[in-house]
Specification:
This protein has 438 residues and is α/β, with parallel strands linked by helices. Helix content is 36%, strand content 20%.
């Protein structure tokens, strides 16, 4: 590290910590740590929890699911169950497939649902037709499942559902609010898939990408029936000025009273395998090994992207000289309202806002990135930021403030060489920001 210029060495350190921490929450690693099924049951132990899941000796075992890391989870299931699997089908985002031998992977569009998602969902449902009480179904869910598992309700077209999704994503609505609307427009979300799987025994394994940690919000809860106190989707649209902007068919569908669904007693068990807290714990362990003191700025990061970025910048500036070098950590998911015509994602915009706030600060840098390896509709996971961004941007003939106003962080960071690329990571536990004060 001493042989490299300080800026390059700092970036290498931040990215190495980021990548190593992700390895602790990769799907196949999480599943393989659950233990091998024995005979007529699978005794699962994870993070202090124990689940005894029966496996009928004469029954079949199926694997279905969706999400950016569903392929990684499926890889772990194949390792544990091998030839005991009868069939399987998971839906992943384009480019996020894993090398599987028994479970089929179908790829579809994300974050906007598309026709491939519709076809893939239909194929997934065909995989589990004709289930009996002796059969068992493992459902794998991670972030991204809401867009990938597509089955619009009657009266709403795919195009209309895609338009609503796009409006909500650009509005600044939280993932919980977006998923509350998605549930009402789908035949498989909000418990719809669980009803399709009756009378089989169902085990849902999840990686959480929602700040609340509520299992029924991950992937819009296909195996978790909506409760009686579900959120009013019309109120959500109105909150963001979208009630009149969405198609009339969508308003009509959302206005219909929804009955709370009952979950089949004793036939469904669920286990969350990883969330951002587990990731932060891994970061602290790596930091200790590297001789760095680690401090949490916001381990439950939520709310406005710009506000969270400014908090991180302020925290980096405030580290006393005697406490440096120090690693500052934030994890969660912020919300970004997109008004400009640029290209980027919430992590790249986080980095841009933080860089502007750190202007002139020579002893701080940060990495902000999505743990799934993608940030918004770009090929980058996120971006690096430091107090010298303004100079690099000017050298490239760009104005950072103008690019920020257009939500054009990707093109800025591409020009300055500050993008972070990881490719698909095999997990999805929201976003991670690592800042270092030295």
């Amino acid at each position: 590290m001493d042989d490299l210029p300080q800026a390059a060495a700092t970036r290498a350190l931040l990215k190495n910590i980021f990548v190593e921490a992700l390895d602790a929450v990769r799907g196949e690693r999480l599943v393989e740590g659950l233990g091998i099924p024995q005979g007529d049951h699978w005794r699962i132990r994870h993070q202090g929890k124990t689940i005894n899941w029966p496996l009928h000796p004469e029954g079949r075992i199926f694997v279905i699911g969706a999400g950016k890391a569903a392929g990684s989870l499926a890889k772990g299931v194949e390792t544990l169950l091998g030839d005991r699997l009868s069939d399987g089908c998971v839906i992943v985002k384009h480019g996020h497939a894993e090398p599987l031998t028994r479970i089929r992977q179908l790829q579809a569009g994300h974050p906007i649902p598309d026709a491939q998602g519709v076809d893939a969902t239909a194929e997934m449902l065909r995989t589990v037709e004709g289930l009996t009480e002796r059969d068992s179904v493992i459902v794998l869910l991670t972030g991204g499942a809401s867009a990938l598992m597509v089955a619009p309700i009657e009266g709403v077209t795919l195009q209309e559902k895609a338009a609503v999704t796009d409006m909500l994503l650009r509005s600044g609505a939280s993932i919980e609010e977006i998923n509350a609307v998605r549930k009402r427009l789908s035949r498989v979300k909000g418990g719809g898939l669980l009803r399709h799987l009756q009378p089989a025994s169902v085990l849902t394994l999840l990686i959480s990408d929602v700040p609340s940690g509520n299992l029924d919000m991950i992937g819009s809860g296909p195996t978790f029936p909506c409760s009686a106190d579900f959120t009013d989707p019309i109120a959500i649209l109105a909150r963001y000025g979208l009630e009149q902007a969405v198609p009339a068919s969508v308003r009509d569908a959302l206005a219909n009273e929804m009955q709370a669904a009952a979950e089949p007693a004793g036939r469904h068990k669920a286990l969350m395998l990883a969330d951002s807290a587990m990731l932060v714990e891994a970061v602290h362990g790596i930091a200790a090994r590297e001789g760095l003191s680690a401090y949490d700025v916001d381990a439950g990061m939520a709310g406005n992207t710009h506000d969270a970025a400014l908090r991180m910048a302020d925290a980096l500036r405030a580290v006393p000289p005697q406490d440096r070098p120090a690693l500052l950590v934030s994890a969660g998911e912020t919300t970004l309202q997109v008004k400009g015509d640029g290209l980027g994602g919430r992590n790249q915009e986080f980095a841009l806002v933080a860089a502007l706030a750190l202007a002139g600060e020579g002893n701080a840098a940060l990495l902000a990135a999505g743990t799934d390896g993608t940030d918004g509709p770009t090929d980058a996971a996120g971006a690096f930021a430091d107090g010298a961004l303004h100079e690099r941007a000017r050298a490239a003939g760009l104005d950072p403030a103008e690019m920020l106003a257009r939500n054009d962080s990707y093109r800025l960071f591409k020009a300055t060489g500050d993008l972070v690329h990881t490719g698909p990571t095999g997990t999805n536990v929201m976003d991670l920001v690592l800042g270092i004060a030295f």
